[in-house]
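hey can u run this one w/ adenosine-5'-diphosphate bound, need the structure tokens asap thx
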Amino acid sequence: MILIVDDTPENIISLKKVLEKNGFEVDTASSGEEALKKILNRSYVLIILDVQMPGMDGFEVAETISGFSKAKETAIIFLSAASANVNLITRGYSSGGLDYISKPVDMNVLLLKVKTFYRIYEQSRALNKMQETLREEIEYRKEAERKKDEFISIASHELKTPMTSVKGYIQLLERSIEKNDIETTKARLSKVQNQIEKLNNLIADLLDISKIESGKLKLNKKHFQFDALVEDVLEILQQSHPDVTFIKKGSFEGKIYGDDIRIEQVILNFMTNALKYAPDSNEIHINSRREGDHAYFSVKDFGIGMAEENKDKVFNKFYRIEETSERFQGLGIGLYICKEIIELHQGEIGVNSQPGEGSEFYFTLPLNTEQDENI
Ligand code: ADP
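ok here u go:
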């Protein structure tokens, strides 16, 4: 937008007409004071400024706006009878550019100058934008690098902890074997097994991450009974957590066409998170049902819950809620893998949650594929 400042209405009209005819947007002011008000309110690419005006003259206007942040990139073309004075003002004004045209105005010269200023303005905007994008990209790299470093450090720690336990138990095992103490040997062997299972799960998760990165996480689909799968997971968890009450609500009796091992992995992940992030509760609700053309499954806990802004982020790779990350161990990759698995099945994943009240993680699986045999 161009601002024409001139106290002679005829000048304004003729300048406005020519500029508008050439596709420029034009605003006008008939005094220095009015111009200042306008410049305070919006940014102009260019101001065409009559030097000789009653009241505030063109130079005064230019000097005043040299301090306005809104006019930082604004260029000025003075319309002046004498050219010498223009040089004086250029020193004080560090804007997008200054020029002058002697009166009477040669419209061709004016248009040429206006077009040049516009081109410079557009080029400098494009450059600024490019710079901004580059800066953002660098920041985003930096951020990814930081997250990766943090992940490597947590992952090494998570792998080292069960490894240290295994080492310790093996030393103890040697002693109980020497003593021929079968009962203690059995108990210690089972502890070693637990730790090895932990290591195995961690390594499997890490392998899944690299499969996702390289697009190699593939599904091995077949028809399977969904409810039977849920029952299996519940049975295993009930054995390892005898003090927790798993309340199963509803069921989905039909068959699903999908990768049962991967779906089991998601269900198990929801359940282990429900156990981990609700340390003071001993109840978990499991819902499954048919909802129109898809199966719905959810795991609800009564634990720490989460704030609204974290509900999407928890499915991001390496994301862990900062406030609770010290209190609970983890790598921040389980839900990311779950999301990938569910999305590969064309399903949806999400969470309903209130801080302090608990979370309900859910997924849906579509039933309307040709291969489905839903009963
Ligand atoms: P991890 O538990 O290993 O950190 P996840 O990917 O399973 O990784 O979960 C990501 C983050 O989501 C967790 O660090 C935690 O902050 C949050 N979260 C997951 N499940 C729950 C839950 N049931 N209740 C509250 N927060 C949860």
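The first strand starts at residue 2 and ends at 5. anyway lmk if its weird
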